[in-house]
Specification:
single chain; 2 domains; globular; alpha/beta; 13 strands
């Protein structure tokens, strides 16, 4: 039985993060090791979720890729970029944690893992909120993370999982929330944006849009359809093809308007033989990733960066103050 949202928020507010930034790389390596050592348990949990029509099979190659990308990250809490100096002062930028970050998502385990790791890098508290999709797998993942945090003497309430279909009850705690991240389809994004009083970042990760105005690549398009991923099709009216999930449009202009209104703004493709239409599509469609005559699923990366989860401040230091507490002269990077 889970805590209510007031308790979850209170737990986050009380978290102490002493020396987390010094331990974070070791913590992340321990999380990876623990996940890989529990592959059988993850597969068992996934099988139960699948039997309940509430999940999918785990792909540990994707897990490995997520950790490989995180290992390359150089964005950390406290990172300082010095830009200039004069005789008395050094000017620069420093990254600070946002504080309490609420991640509303559709239950995709890979998204949850990446959000946990990226928020750890910048020392945020993270509250993961979804309606219970893949509950078994996600619960196991969060418990592993919390166990690793405790091992390093970090309050395990740094990472919490809360199940609810009523996102408004979470967002009503806006005074104690510093950042909202929403990852999911267009409907979920709009719902949260309409209810959130905090700064909100959106992503349509794993939701794709395709506009088809030529059937030249229809065999390839059908292969994309067979992946059964979350794809919204926009089909030109005069084409003699049909998809279960389609919106008919008169022309390129209507397709662009529909995608910009209904689309996830994550990854979008156009299938066309007209170079001018392809060029206009690329310029006018509001999407993080755009492809031409290629699957929108080709580049499946989460488009929320670690730096988006940190608060960057302009800082001015005395010229003789070093960040480790000593007073040797700071040398500018320029």
């Amino acid at each position: 039985m889970q805590d209510n949202i007031d308790t979850v928020i209170s737990n986050a507010l009380l978290v102490k993060k002493y020396n987390l930034n010094k331990k974070v790389k070791d913590i992340i390596n321990s999380i990876k090791e623990s996940i890989m050592n529990n592959k059988d348990n993850f597969n068992e949990a996934a099988n139960i979720d699948i039997k309940n029509n509430n999940g999918f099979n785990m792909d540990f190659d994707i897990i490995e890729r997520i950790f490989n990308n995180i290992e390359k990250e150089d964005v950390l809490y406290g990172t300082v970029t010095l830009s200039s100096k004069d005789d008395n002062k050094v000017y620069g930028k420093e990254l600070f944690s946002y504080g309490n970050v609420v991640v509303i998502n559709d239950g995709n385990t890979y998204t949850i893992l990446e959000m946990i790791l990226k928020n750890l890098l910048v020392c945020n508290n993270v509250i993961l909120v979804n309606n219970g999709y893949m509950y078994g797998v996600n619960h196991l993942l969060v418990e592993i993370v919390r166990e690793v945090l405790s091992k390093y003497k970090i309050d395990s309430n740094l990472v919490q999982l809360y199940m609810s279909e009523n996102y408004e009850e979470v967002l009503n705690n806006y005074a104690n929330i510093d950042l909202v991240v929403v990852i999911g389809n267009h409907t979920l994004q709009l719902d949260v944006l309409n209810k959130s009083k905090n700064r909100t970042i959106t992503s349509g990760y794993e939701y794709f849009d395709i506009y088809i105005e030529s059937v030249k690549n229809i065999d390839f398009i059908n292969k994309i359809k067979d992946t059964n991923l979350n794809i919204q099709y926009y089909v030109k009216d005069d084409l003699d093809i049909e998809f279960d999930n389609e919106i008919r449009v008169a022309d390129l202009e209507e397709a662009i308007a529909q995608i910009n209104y209904n689309g996830s703004r994550y990854s979008t493709s156009i299938f066309t033989e007209d170079e001018n239409n392809a060029s206009r599509f690329m310029k006018e469609v509001k999407s993080s990733i755009i492809t031409v005559n290629t699957s929108p699923t080709i580049e499946r990366i989460l488009d929320i960066k670690t730096r988006d989860l940190a608060y960057e401040k302009t800082v001015i230091y005395p010229n003789n103050l070093k960040l480790d507490g000593t007073h040797d002269e700071i040398k500018s990077t320029k």
